[in-house]
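Input/output pair, single chain:
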Amino acid sequence: MNHDKILILDFGSQYNQLIARRIRENSVYCELKPYYTSIEEIKEFDPKGIIFSGGPNSVYALNSPDVPDEIFQLGVPILGICYGMQLITKKLGGKVERSDEQEFGFAEVNIDIDDSIFNKVVNNISDPWKVWMSHGDKVVTLAEGFDVLAHSDNTPFAVIKNTERNIYGVQFHPEVEHTENGSIFLDDFVKNICGCSGDWTPASFIEESIEKIRSEVGNKKIILGFSGGVDSAVAALLLKKAVGNNLINIFVDNGLLRLDERNKVVDKFKEKIGLNLIVVDAAERFLSELKGVEDPERKRKIIGKVFIDVFHDEIDTILEKEGHAVEFLAQGTIYPDVIESVSAKGGPSDTIKSHHNVGGLPEDMKLKVVEPLRDLFKDEVRRLGKALGLHEHMIDRHPFPGPGLGVRILGEVTKEKCDILRKADDIFINEIEKAGIYNEIGQAFAVFLPVKTVGVMGDVRTYDNVIALRAVRTIDFMTADWYPFEHNFLAKVSTRIINEVRGVNRVVYDISSKPPGTIEWE
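Output:
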């Protein structure tokens, strides 16, 4: 890859992925690497600029994350964000202390020196710049050669700069949506300060990927686990463009899919697009393994393991027929999967939920792994899908979890519960589409609750199941707000579900935000 590149060193900030996404949105390639990346690897990456992310540590704490001194001798521009700015200050001879007044949330930054880094972030240099602060420490003495460019009421050094060494620091987070024109600020840094040209586009990615895949694979065949979701669909189209019918797609029906999903996948991708698609019906096997299991993490692990087993069995069948013609296994792994599976601190991260598309494959698997989307974020995958000609309805489709309905049924998973949830979920999504608000919502779905309630239907007393509805607005899926449906809409959906789905007598709507809740219930 001959594009200009930015390196982001990750110090554990919850916003680290947002830095990369903001830069890539402006057609500049960047990668997020842990802070302990060696200086040799950094030199090999050959970045035109380096960004130090924020992080939860204090620079004066024992064994706090650090970087080698040589990084400041590479001669490329550096931007430190929050912890990154404090680390730069400490490394170069300044002083950082615990702040008496912590600063979390919105703050107004007043610009002291009219520097080019502030291009377009405010209308007039005298206007305050609204930014998002999140720090408990602050710089109290600048390192030699640094000037203060801006301050806030609680932070005397909100933006700093060493002109001679082309090093900048900001105490706030320009990557989050809350910072006004933060994306413009970052774009100005990578293009005007670092000199990146902004030539990383979906078209260039397709061209380079096809060349790379053909060079790696040759005339051998590739097997892809195909789910019908955006990631696997885009991976399949890209691989098909590169190797044609040498791509073999395996679709596993695990019995935990949305209503009529299997038939829709076959119609769209096998009949209309012409993918070489094998369908494996493994519903009974999955449901049998899930019998009696209620713990959500255990359900995820069982579903992941059974998927691998079923997939491996099908690969063995293909290998018996195809022999040595098959040498590669493709996965729809995307960049957040890779990042979230490795802790920035080099140790285990807190487990929120398990991913089963990074790792987890049998050690005796002799196929070489190909991951054509490994370097892309979800929004980049969607843009790539559009460039490849994937239908907009497919590109904009809401995410569906890998374990499927297995984590939308709270408690034990059974076929009866799956059938009830499928119908309720389909009614909910159908009404959202009819209302013309589907694309205003980041994710919407129904959840089967592990409780029953008393009801009256006609003249008959019932004791039936409860369905919860969940819909959120989100930009990055890291934070989310519940969607404010009109009451008439919710009444209509509730009436349809209760009247049309046998076994349901009550519908509720989830108005929790993320945080403190997660988007999915399990």
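The chain has three domains: 5-193, 202-395, 414-509. The first strand starts at residue 5 and ends at 10.
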